[in-house]
Amino acid sequence: MADSGDSYADLAEVRAAIDDLDADLVELLVRRQRLVRAAGTFKRTDLEVQAPDRAAAVVATAAARAEEAGGSGELIGDIYRAMVDSFIAYERRNVSSAPPSTPPAPND
User: Fold this and answer.
1) 46's torsion region: left (phi>0), alpha (psi -120 to 50) or beta?
2) In 3D, which of 85, 97, 86, 94 has the Cα closest to residue 45?
3) In the chain, how many domains are there?
4) Which stretches of 41-72 are DSSP H helices?
5) pLDDT per residue over 73-93, tens digit each?
6) Could you report how far apart the first and last alpha carbons of the chain are, in Å?
7) Do the domain assignments include residue 101?
8) What average pLDDT is seen over the chain?
9) 20 in any annotated domain
10) pLDDT at 98
11) Residue range of the domain that includes 44
């Protein structure tokens, strides 16, 4: 199937191409999930799980790569931020032995 938006015969063909791409994306996301699980075994604190500098770098890199490829850095950055946040939540629930952060007690 074609990759260019102007070479499709009809909407059904475009949707079929999207479905094929989605199948590839799911496989890649499952691979990423396995890597997140492996990384989580090395983390001992919630800050290591959150890794804010690493998360920001991953999002920025994805946005820059999207721009270089002719896509929207803003859109891809938004998607990556949501993905990274989801993987952090997954890691907190299922992988890391780090205790969750507790919010500071309010001052009286």
Assistant:
1) alpha
2) 97
3) 1
4) 46-50, 52-68
5) 999 999 999 999 999 999 999
6) 65
7) no
8) 89
9) yes
10) 63
11) 11-94
Query: Quick one: tokens of 100?
Result: 């969750």
CA trace torsion 86, 82, 58, 53 (10° rounding): -70
Sign of CA dihedral 85, 87, 90, 91: negative
Residue type, 88: I
Residue with tokens 């270089």: 68
Buried b (16+ CB within 10 A) or exposed e, 14-36: eeebeeeeeeeeeeeeeeebeeb
| DSSP structural state of residue 108 | -
Secondary structure class of 102 (helix, strand, coil): coil
Q: Which two tokens stand for residue 3?
A: 């990759």
CATH code, domain with 61: 1.20.59.10
> At 98, which amino acid appears?
A
pTM: 0.81
**Tokens 């032995």 sit at which residue?**
97
Which residue type, as a one-letter code, is found at position 70? G
3-state SS assignment for residue 77: helix
